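Onboarding guide, step 5: your first structure request.
Type a short instruction followed by the sequence, for example:

Predict the 3D structure of this protein.
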Amino acid sequence: MSKFVIYLLVLLNIYCYGKKVFDLNTLKNNKNEADIRVGEEFVVKVRSNPTTGYEMIFVNGDEVSDSLNLISEKFIPSGNLNLVGAGGHKYFYFKAVKVTNEAQTLKFSNKRKWEKQTNNPDYTLKVNVY
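The system replies with structure tokens like these:
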């Protein structure tokens, strides 16, 4: 692993310290739920490989913007940076800003930026803000 990747991973761990991290690659389908307090920040982690022309995109920000704010997103490559086509993980940083009466569903799709949103996202996470 290159020194640059190690440096990025260390920075990412520092930034995520104390935040809940939801790895959607390891959670079971349709059981992806999170309970978050107002004011709390959390991170959603998904596999991504933008070198193929596709990347993981948060697709329904307009639907949840009253209760959840997307703060930032970062792609961190895995392994060798010199390897063409190598993937990594994309991290989406959110903050809960308003209590909700029902769960808000975050949707993520692996697509090209210019493609229209599909009705079948690749990953979802239901967030209850209290």
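Each response can be followed by summary notes, for example: The first helix runs from residue 3 to 16.
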